[in-house]
Write a structure and sequence with these properties.
By secondary structure, the chain is of the alpha/beta class. The chain is built from twelve helices and 13 strands. Residues 41-52 have a biased composition (Low complexity).
Amino acid sequence: MSPRAGQAGHPARTLAFVESPVQLLNVLEWAHLHGLPDAAPAHPAAPSVTASAPPPALPAQSRPAPAGPGPAVPAQVRRLPGGAAAGAELTVVVLAPTDPMTRGQLRRMADLARDEGYRVRWEEARGGATAPFHTIGGLAGSLRRADRVVMGDPFSRYVQLLLTVTRARDLVVVDDGTATMEFVAQLARGERLVRWHRKGGRPGARDLFFAPVSSSARRRLTPSAHRRVEVFSSMPVTETPEGVTVTANDFAWTRGRFGPPRITDGADMVGTSLVETGVVDGDHYLEAVRSLAKAHGVTRYFAHRRESTEKLHRLAGETRLEIVRPDLPLELIARRGPIGRTILSFPSTVVHTLPLALAGTGVRVAVCDIDPTWLTQTASPRAQGFLSGVTGTARDVHRLTAIAPA
């Protein structure tokens, strides 16, 4: 889907709504692929990172995540001449969460978006009981004027509410990780929009209250003669809804702006929030991390932004791993380097995205399956099958069927 002219000959007015750093990264990837902004001059080539000039050190777990404006963006990212005016047809709206780690990464990603020439509007969307009403009310005019709406999380109740306001003819869903796979499948089957790790449970009072909004969002995300829908994803899409355009995300913007990274001889591990979402038992997870680290010589553990401080302190104490709290999405961190020659992960989005972001570097991504005995009693009945599917559909990864040396 190429950028479409709006009414009266103006460039298509695009609003993008993001609630996580990865969503904002994928908005930048989508805009890069589709040539937004049209009027912007060509980007200068980004210099490579070499061993003699390593990028800034990653923040360790003991350092607090920035709640306000983050540190300066890496030197290898250049500001476009003309600033935000060059990309005026794309405005990124950040529906800010309350989690400090997520806010810190979003601040850094917002800096990168501005450096690409796009407008960024930061909304304290969760800053109190009346914040949602102020946010939606303040965005209503822009939503009605928008020709295109880009969203990172169609499961978000916030986004679903915003979709009831917009008249946009073009709707775009960019990756929000593995949830994108479930969204596309649910849309193809005409099912209600429910996150995979909650599916199978009894709907709560809030679910019932928002059911009409969710149903409306599903209808609006269904293509028609008056509405076009695009899914921009690096994830495997096996069930394509009729009329939906699926566009592959190969992380061209990331590879063009960062790296190539310096590769170390050791191994790194990527953390997951499966414990925090109630899918995997905490003790089993800790034992799995300890065994993998010992078997594969892991020295660093890149924490997921949603991992609890208590769990990470316990991991550091019992495994002696260096716990790293990244200040940017892992795809960018890995491209900046330094990064281990082997990256170990449990089933998650990164087993699909890291091979794309690190293409041609020689870094190996290995994924360890989730043993059924690790699941909690309250885990969704679909959890094991979904996680196995995440692993089984990943390309260019080494699959660890057991926790043993490679």
